[in-house]
Amino acid sequence: MHKTSVVIIGGGPSGMLLSHILSEHGIDNVVLEKHTRDHVLSRIRAGVLEPGSVKLLRDVGLSTRLDKEAKFHNGTLIVWAGSERLEIDTMKYTGQPMAAYGQTAITEDLYDARAKSDGVIITEATDIMLQDIATDEPTVTYQKNGNRQEIQCEFIAGCDGFHGVSRNSIPVEKRRSYEKTYPFGWLAIMSETKPLEDIVYANHKRGFALASQRNEKLSRYYIQCDLDTDIKDWPDDKFWEELKSRFPRQMADEIETGPSIEKSIAPLRSFVNEPMRYGRLFLAGDAAHIVPPTGAKGLNLAFADVFYLSRALERFYHGNDSSYLDNYSKTALDRVWHTARFSWNLTRLLHRFPGDEPFDQKTRESELEYLSRSEKAMAAIAEQYTGLPL
Predict the structure, then answer these.
(1) Which of 111, 222, 299, 359 lies in disulfide reach of 186, CB 3.0 to 4.6 Å?
(2) Phi and psi (nearest 5°) for 88?
């Protein structure tokens, strides 16, 4: 049996960031990841960072590459009804820029940092089981190379995503889930092309579209699609044609096309699990909540969880103070619900829903027009888009 202070389930960005911060504070930890490192690093995910997430990465010494390669921008555009547009000017209303920097790059940075610090990361750990999590001496068992292994610890951090084992290790009668599924998905591609200068959301009669970015030579584009869409029916040429049809002509002409290097379809959902703590198990990231990607909040919300949890554990081990651990679930959920509401509202505002009547779209356009005319309303949405301070 191996012993450690904290077992972290999940080797994605939230689990690896937590591991890095804990190690910086001298708190022993082990990361268990069911996939290989190559598999984890191959996943294409979010790429827009709030100022709070950028500051967190800088504060823990993980921003060298980010500061060189990230594309910082002062706002986001929304276009609708063919040509009308408004700008969410984050610099004007909050004094802070957003950053485009891919989750894959962040995860690479984290794995490199943990390797330099001799961090214990056990990949291809299968059949993970959490035991005695309501006691002061929980254990985690897993299968590796045909052998059953066991780790005794003081705390477990469940950072293993929506389909992981952590959340489901909490007794059903001790947790409650809130969920909303959306009747559409996003068809996405990545291409090695120069992105538009701004991140642009489009509300169009053919459906939602988004022009996003990862760096100066890497673009990410999305279009709203039906849930039964088959990716095989969407060769690159068809995707580019449909994407451009959803943007104003001048903007569409500026979109640089090219072969896709990744293509995927993702359904949209909102999900929140309460509480985010049970005994010595603490949930973080997608293990506890999912938000639709419309507001670019998923990774940022996971990093907020990591900040709250790492602070709580540091205070416990070095300050003999358990109050932050006791309040972790409430503190994290306050931010989760605020973010879930914002992401839901932006999704409602920018998408066309099956069964919509003309009234529904006219009210959306009226709301967008109001935002474009009201300084107070724009300041409110800019504040939510950049994220409240941690």
Answers:
(1) 222
(2) -85, 95
- Residue from 111, 201, 308, 317 carrying the catalytic annotation: 201
| 73 is a catalytic site residue | yes
Give me the catalytic one of 35, 73, 144, 194: 73
Catalytic-role residue among 293, 308, 324, 328: 293
What residue spans define the domains of the chain? 2-46+102-178+269-343
Catalytic status, residue 51: no
Query: Does the active-site annotation cover 275?
Result: no
Write down the CATH superfamily of domain 2-46+102-178+269-343: FAD/NAD(P)-binding domain (3.50.50.60)
Q: Where are the alpha helices (DSSP H) in the chain?
A: 13-24, 37-42, 51-59, 64-69, 90-94, 103-116, 236-245, 249-254, 298-319, 323-326, 328-350, 358-373, 375-386
Compute the distance between CA of residue 158 and CA of residue 14 in angstroms, rounded to an integer. Answer: 10
Per-residue pLDDT of the chain (390 residues; tens, 9 = 90+): 699 999 999 999 999 999 999 999 999 999 999 999 999 988 877 789 999 999 999 999 999 999 999 989 888 899 986 667 888 899 999 999 999 998 899 999 999 999 999 999 999 999 999 999 999 999 999 999 999 999 999 999 999 999 999 999 999 999 999 999 999 999 999 999 999 988 999 999 999 999 998 888 889 999 999 999 999 999 999 999 999 999 999 999 999 999 999 999 999 999 999 999 999 999 999 999 999 999 899 999 999 999 999 999 999 999 999 999 999 999 999 999 999 999 999 999 999 999 999 999 999 999 999 998 999 999 999 999 999 888
CA separation for the pair 323, 40 (Å, rounded): 34
pTM of the entire structure?
Answer: 0.95
